[in-house]
Amino acid sequence: MERNLVLIALFAALIAALGLVPTITLMSGVPISAQSLGVMLCGTVLGARKGALAVLLFLLLVALGLPLLAGGRGGLGVFVSPTAGFLVGFPVAAFVTGAIVEKLRAVPLMWAAMIGAFLGGVIALYIPGIIGMAITLGKSLAEASALALPFIPGDLVKVGIAGLVTSAIARARPGSLLSRSSARAKGPR
Amino acid sequence: MLALTSPVETPFHRLPAGVKLLFLAGFTLAVFQVERPVAMLLPVAFVAGAYLAAGRSFLWQGAAALRPLWPFVAVILAWHAVTREIAIGLTLSGRILATVALANLVTMTTRLDDLVAVVTALLSPLERLGVKPRVIGFAIALVIRFTPVLIGKGQALAEAWRARSPRRPRWNIVTPVTLAALDDAEHVAEALRARGGLPAGSTERKRHGT
Questions:
Q1: B43 alpha-carbon distance from chain centroid
Q2: Is residue A185 part of a domain?
Q3: What DSSP string runs through B88-110?
Q4: For a designed S-S bond to A42, which of A94, A138, A170, B93 qualifies (C-beta 3.0 to 4.6 A apart)?
Q5: Contact A2 B189 (CB under 8 A)
Q6: Residues A65/B107, Cβ–Cβ less than 8 Å
């Protein structure tokens, strides 16, 4: 109980820290933050349920007015801004990512994490994101998708990084990878 | 301090947090019904007036908080200039600016403690379903405490990297920062257990002979 709660809280803090520390600039010149990488890692490391809870906790703090989103944004305004759909998609992304890593036990962890991060952190994230942009900007879904397109390459890079980081963590702290060790985590503490 | 609350004291600071949140929800719903650009002037003027009433330095803070929105407004206006539907473009821009600006105003004039109190009050009916508001309050405190810690560790790692390499640290520090989060979590959980467990909710499931 304590361990799960603290892990959820610290991964919420990790999403915030990754949004503020390193920014990677792509060849195309589009700056990307590692924030959605943090969302992917919540899923690949904590698993579906705890990963999604960590993201929800992070969003709760953003709503309460802490400047934790990439670029130091926060507050209630971001939930009605054009990018609000992506925030709605964040917990879904972590859940889908985690669920896939949990299900694909036969697949080597790095590949399972990459597949999960792609289906969760890109596909499941962009669907509500694009719907949100379509609503707030009054565009059709196709037009909104075109606006989101420049950010896809950066997120594909993050999918690869999520796979590499997850397998590195599995090697360094095998017991901490809750997405792949549910039996152990539920056992005696 | 890690918060977006404005240090400029305004009359809005004295309104109860719940009232402000309710008004914001109603305002946002109403603004999404407005279709004509002339009618949209009303909510925009209302929000602008609210910022003005709070004083000039508060107005500037509010304007700075809206900076991330300008690219979207520019895209909308350019788009609808091309499609010759500038009225729609103006309505959409006004809607985005008015709703986000008022939400920012609530954030800037409400103390974090008051918002946390609203959240725990809203969650209290869920207590029967196993959601423990005070545990969530504790989790909020943990995130607020550890976000600066992890950011600090990330910056230290990036500095260590720069001292050794001419290239900028990129994703290389993500793994060590994540490991730091995992290790800190284990230490904090251990310390919590040593002190008798979580602050609330642990009353009904008192330790059974551990």
A1: 23
A2: no
A3: HHHHHHHHHHHHHHHHHHHHHHS
A4: A94
A5: yes
A6: yes
Residue A14 domain boundaries: 2-180
C-alpha span between B194 and B209 (Å, rounded): 15
* Tens-digit pLDDT profile for residues B59-95: 998 898 888 788 888 888 888 888 888 888 898 889 8
Tell which A residues from 94 to 133 touch B, by Cβ distance under 8 Å.
none
CATH number at residue A125: 1.10.1760.20
- Cross-chain residue pair B142–A18, CB shorter than 8 Å: no
Q: To the nearest whole angstrom, how far is the Cα of A76 from the nearest Cα of chain B?
A: 5
Q: How many other β-carbons are positioned within 10 Å of the β-carbon of residue A106? A: 6
Using alpha carbons only, give the angle A120, A179, A103 rounded to the nearest 5 degrees.
Answer: 65
Q: Is residue A189 part of a domain?
A: no
Mind listing the pLDDT tens digit for each residue in A15-35? 998 887 655 555 555 556 788
Alpha-carbon torsion, ordered B202, A176, A164, B175, to 10 deg: 70
* Inter-chain residue contact A60 with B88, CB threshold 8 Å: no
Rounded to an integer, what distance in angstroms lies between the CA atom of residue A97 and that of residue A125? Answer: 10
Say whether the ipTM exceeds 0.90: no
CB pairs under 8 A between A and B: 199
- A50 located within any domain: yes
Number of domains in chain A: 1
